[in-house]
């Protein structure tokens, strides 16, 4: 067995590139990530032990929207340092034109769980949450398989 050192990167393929590119450039910069690559069909940001690339989908999928319970990605969640940061991201998502699925609210996923769920212009589900302390690693915390995770 090994212990990994985080996730190196995630790459999202998006339709509606002309809307998604500025949305992600604004959002990821607001989250404190640094843009390290900007090409005609892809952008890549790094920071906070996180790397996220966003690229134009293949031409045959250009008109499609993200389908949350399809094969592949269900949603992507960023971890905030405090509840106020979740609230700040909510305001920024609204400014950027993202669709809010649910505003900042408490949830049952872990003790103190507080999150915002939203979508990019092509419908990809994104979340930002704050979990104080050790979250699910704390004594007595649990997660039940099959819980509704929107």
Poorly predicted segments: none
What is the domain tally? 1
Q: Can you summarize the main beta sheet?
A: 4 strands, mixed
End-to-end separation: 32 Å
Strands side by side in the biggest sheet: 1-4-3-2
SSE topology string: EHEEEEHEEE
Total helical elements: 2
CATH architecture: Roll
Structural class: alpha/beta
The CATH fourth-level homologous superfamily: 2,3-Dihydroxybiphenyl 1,2-Dioxygenase, domain 1
pLDDT average, as an integer? 90
**Secondary structure: number of strands:** 8
Oligomer: single chain
CATH topology assignment: 2,3-Dihydroxybiphenyl 1,2-Dioxygenase, domain 1
Any idea of the CATH class? Alpha Beta
How helix-rich are the residues, as a percent range?
A: 10-25%
Overall spatial form: globular
* Strand coverage percent: 25-35%
State Rg: 16 Å
Provide the descriptors you would attach to this structure in a database record:
150 residues; alpha/beta; 2,3-Dihydroxybiphenyl 1,2-Dioxygenase, domain 1; four-stranded mixed β-sheet; 2 helices
């Amino acid at each position: 067995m090994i212990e990994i050192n985080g996730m190196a990167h995630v790459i999202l393929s998006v339709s509606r590139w002309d809307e998604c590119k500025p949305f992600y450039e604004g959002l990821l910069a607001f989250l404190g990530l640094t843009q390290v690559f900007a090409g005609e069909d892809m952008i890549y940001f790094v920071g906070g032990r996180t790397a996220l690339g966003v690229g134009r989908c293949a031409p045959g999928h250009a008109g499609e929207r993200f389908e949350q319970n399809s094969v592949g990605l269900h949603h992507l969640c960023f971890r905030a340092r405090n509840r106020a940061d979740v609230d700040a991201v909510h305001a920024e998502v609204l400014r950027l034109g993202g669709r809010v699925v649910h505003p900042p609210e408490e949830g049952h996923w872990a003790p103190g769980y507080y999150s915002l769920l939203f979508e990019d212009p092509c419908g990809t589900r994104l979340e930002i949450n704050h979990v104080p302390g050790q979250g699910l690693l704390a004594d007595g915390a649990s997660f039940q398989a099959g819980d509704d995770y929107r």
